[in-house]
Amino acid sequence: MLKSRKTVIVAVALALTTFGFVGSGLASASAPTTLVIGSQVAPPGLDPTSNASAAIDEVFDYNVYQHLYQLNPKGQLVPTLATSYTLSPNGLTYTFKLRSGVQFSNGDAFTAKNVVFSLNRAADPANGYPYQSLVSDVASVTAPSDTTAVVTLTHADSQFLYNLAAYSNGVILDPNAVSTIATQPVGTGPFTFVSMVPNYDIVLAGSPTFWGTPPAMRQIIWQYFANPTTMDSALQSGQIQVIDNLNSPSNVSAFKGNSAFQIIAGPTNGKIDLTVNNSKGPLKSLKVRQALYYALNRPAILKTVGAGYGTVISSDQVPGDPWYTPSVNSTYAYNPTKAKALLKAAGYPHGFTLTLSVPPYSYATEAAPLVQAMFAAVGVKVIIKPISWPLWISNVFLGSQNYQLTIIDQVEARDIPEYGDCSYYFNYAGCKAVNQMINAANQATSDAAMVTGYKAVVKKINADVANFWLYNPDQLTVAAKDVIGLPSGGLTESFNMQYLARSGTLSPSLIAQGFLN
Amino acid sequence: MALLKLQSLSVAHGDLDLVSDVSFDVHAGERVGIIGESGSGKSLTALAIAGLLGEELRSRGSVHFDGEELIGASERHLSRLRGDRIAMIFQEPMTALTPTKRVGVQIGETLRIHRGVGRRASQIAAVELLGRVEFSDPQRYARMYPHELSGGQRQRVMIALAIAGDPDLILADEPTTALDVTVQRKILELLDRLVREENCALVLIAHDLAVVSTICDRVVTMYGGRVVETGSVADIIDHPRHPYTAALLATSSAIAVDVESRGTVLPSIPGSVPSAGHFPGGCPFRDRCSSATSACLEFPLMESGSHRVACWHPLDENSERGSR
Amino acid sequence: MSKGRGWFVVRRLGVVLSSLVAASMLVFVFLNVLPGSPAEVILGTQSTPASVAALTIQLGLNKPIWRQYLDWMGGLVNGNFGVSYISGQSIGHEIHQALLVTGPLVLLAMLIGLVIGVPLGLTGALYKGRWLGSVVGGLSQIGIAIPSVVAGILLTVGLSIKLHLFPSSGFPGWQDPWGSLRALVLPAFALGVVEGAILARYIRAAVMEQLRSDYLRTARSKGLRRSQALRRHGLRVAAIPVVTVLGLEIASLIVGAIVVENIFALPGVGMMLLNAVNNRDLIVVQDIAMVVVTAVLLINTLVDLSYQWLDPRLRGRR
To answer: Which pTM value belongs to this model?
Structure first.
């Protein structure tokens, strides 16, 4: 037995260069091939192209639907349905070489025609893709051959490929299956959709038509728990094996120090912001914003709200960003004395009153009283106003944008261009300047120039205190000890399940990509 | 030998005696009336005999029925006597019948309990019993529910129910009080006839002496939970010796007419019946009694004989009534 | 008499139908004035005024409100619950699936409530003033004071995590009947314990009233022992207030199911409602509201009909 296992491992190790995965399921026939993953927010549907819900992307993106290029857990581009691409010197034309022999789970073949159909569908505003604006600069998509797809842009966009990989705009669809996309997802990924009980679970099975190494887990069930305590007990009692992310990081204490579980704290794209409406009252004043930013003890907030899992940030950046500038994060360190002096200089020696709109998320409701106390210490009174999520979108985010402060996790990756959007709810006065800087950076022909351009934006919005960035939270995955192949963090919308297994070891190349052994 | 022999029967609620030291006999086929205003302990005495006192009440003393002691007997034992040998008729026909069961079923139930009679046979018997209590169409009435009947009809059903088990003793607790005056007489006549036919002993409780005098052989007067006088109907009506009996007699409707015809109008009893537990010590009637003296602070012993009275100042045996 | 009862049923049905129409209007208007549009929630932080407007048209939410109401009601009358804005799934199918969880959950809870409440109530009444009665009274006090959330968590910790007797959460589906029943036991207990405690109090009061009644004394005078008399003559009348409470309690059980389904992660109607409200999935909320209203109205009608069956005095009355 030992000998045969060794043989298998050696044989598979040879195959690693192609697909980079140890077929642990093959190594030991008795290892379980079913996994149950618990999560708190149930997807409101199955279609990632019609709903911005992150819970849909988490399950279906990369796992059922695939992109030309995808992100690995470290946030790096990995060729998937494409094998390579070339970019024209003017930065306008991408030519993708496509993988051959790929089938959709209904048996239809994948060709360049699917790329043309899918990207055109995403770019047409009538189809209501949530991230349509990210592909609005596509001029044309053509299919010179079955294995070549050409995408032409209206202007150079250094973020184009990343956006196509990161968001559901990039999923490649089968036109024959689009009419039933809401109920019967069909993709090229390692898993196929089996069934859903709304608000309860989603069952996926290993796809028999998948072009890569079949996943070790032949069945994966996502089970949803509105009550986090119930989810914790389900993991403790062995009903589920993985919790994708602890929404209340303090719950980690239930698993810490217990050798039956592994706790994985990994980076995300999230920025928990005390968002500022730059156009309202005293907050229009730069001195006031500086003062209040000094008044916030952000390491203390991270410790209380995030149980210490995360990174204090002082601009719209996370450690995964190419333009990440750690030095910026040491600005505006907690200094209430300076805050009081700045308030006095701004003409508010006796402070003022602000309203803080708090959406029903645990980080927001837990951070709000801390903010209230810290501002009170420098003489600014905060009224906490709880607000439902639909109302938050209607009144804070859109419409009248009638708010002064709110707390929200801006989860989208590389969303710093929002500071260049003058209609965005920050109402940031420097938006026009930032917009120009970002356009310039996007059209840069070298990566170095692009990064330099973005770094300047990171610094400018920090200097203008366009927002009160609090911290970049970690994703806190908790799993039974024997589960391997978990993504090391939350830098992708997808929770990549392709390499999950319950025995064996992971190849070094996958470990290098950020999958955990 | 007496069928029913009460000796020093008391009923207490906690430490408070509501009925004290009641003793009298009922012989087989004899009809005894108990009179007294409400609150005098008549109903409690009847319930104590049948063992149907409420949970919170306790009886002591002795109730001998056909040579058996009933005080302290088990519920199982008492339930074998009830309905079979001792039956009861209650005051309120409106509430004394189960609203959810057909009249025939309720009557027949006694036979099913004690005679092991089947459903069908008990129904035939129930129809026959309804006929005996003068229902013109007993078949139809047997299928009715109590709320479909008038008060008088319901009380006739109660009587049918009581005689169903062919008992030796019927305890009738103010069976006509709740009825219209015109119906009262018919019900009494019916009861009188049936008790005669069955040759069954009857204890008839009433607050009206007139009711008792038409049916009964003997009268027991109760006041304040005590027996104050007993004697034959003739003795009591013609020669009441206790001032309370005399006063009751005076207020009694039918007999009052008699009195009036003799040109004498007697006043109603002065004062009112105190609530239970608030009767004065000694003779309970003393603060309503015009002849009361300091002797009345102690309860007088009952004399012996057929016409007995518990009073320190009984009315003269030979005089007709108090005023004379 | 039988004509009277037929007329009663017809009248009741009329009341039920007009109540349903009134309820549908209320629900519809209330949800439509609720701030927050489905399009905005679908797009989330990707909302822009343009994308929201486009999606609103795509969802048909730009039609006049009376038109939307008639479309919805027209569908309902034909047994078509419509399609969810948010998930694109058939709502009728989803509600059907959810009812297969909530229905058995509520029934099981009711059953547990009766199993707890009836003996407790009877014992409390028959042993009033003795130590057994006091113990029962104390137990039902505690039962009422415990919210089902707490009962649920206590049961989960005790029976599921510590003893592994029952699953702490989840629902395998009725293709596994034994597993499904096991999954419903704890949640039904969490709901039913409180229910049973409330029932026990009403039953105790109703039975005590019966024990004091004249006709029970009459029944005893016929030779029935106390417990026999109660069983044959008292229980049916005592059942009337209990049935009333039971009918009211079913409505509160449905509400309680929302909380309990949340704790035990059950895919029932409560869970569906909660998520639909959060997602502003208006048609789903409307449909569930109508299903619950219909259920409550039907139960009330059954309760009224059962009064007539239980108490002949009420027959022929309208």
So the answer is: 0.74
